[in-house]
Structure formats: structure tokens, C-alpha cells
Amino acid sequence: MRIIAKRTLRVFWLKHGDCEEQLKSWYRETEKSEWNNINELKSEYPSASILKDNRIVYNIKGNNYRLIVKFNFEYKICWIRFIGTHAEYDKIDAKNI
């Protein structure tokens, strides 16, 4: 899976160092993945929330942070749409970001 863009994660973990290892782990696992659909992804990440338009919300570091990504399974591309604290997540429209 091609992830766009790691820089977004790096900028975030430089500001919030307590989640660096979790974000790096998520990145490595997703980059190596061969998912063809949301069901396959959900089997590896059962706590992830599925939103419309192939968007997924991941809980990072015990739900202290939220990561929203959008997948195109056909082309094996993943776009990072949002990374933030739980409080910041509560202020956005996760279904349309």
C-alpha cells in the first residue's frame, strides 16, 4: 500500500513524541499490507471505525489520538486525511475530511 504522506505523521510525532512509535508501527504495517477491501483491513484492525467513502478512523496510543485515512483499494493507495488529539477530532467532520 502506498501511503500519502508520511511527512504528515512525522510532523505530528515531532510535536507529540509519545505517539511516535505507534505511528511508525501503523505506517510499516499499512505499507506492507495487501488489503483488497475494508473487510480485510478490519480483520487486522478490529477497533478501527469505518466511515463512508473508504475512510477509516484509527485509535492511536490508547485513543489519545485519532488518525483518519482514506483508501483506494483498487490502486493500493492510502491518503492521510487527519491526525490529531481526541479533542481536535471532536471538532472536525470526520465523515467529510
Task: Describe the structure in your own words.
The protein is α+β, with helices and mostly antiparallel strands and 97 residues long. It contains four helices and five strands. The chain has a five-stranded mixed beta sheet. The radius of gyration is 12 Å and the shape is globular. The chain starts with a strand and ends in an 8-residue tail after the last helix. The mean pLDDT is 95.
Task: State the secondary-structure class.
Answer: alpha+beta
Query: What is the end-to-end distance?
Result: 21 Å
Q: Identify the strand order in the major beta sheet.
A: 1-5-4-3-2
Q: Mean of residue pLDDT? A: 95
Range of strand content: 25-35%
Described by the principal axes of the CA atoms, the overall outline is globular
- Using only C-alpha atoms, the radius of gyration works out to 12 Å
The helix/strand order is EHHHEEEEH
Number of strands: 5
Characterize the main sheet: 5 strands, mixed
Task: Please mark out the parts with pLDDT under 50 across 5 or more consecutive residues, or reply none.
Answer: none
Helix fraction by DSSP (H/I, runs of at least 4): 25-40%
How many H/I helices?
4
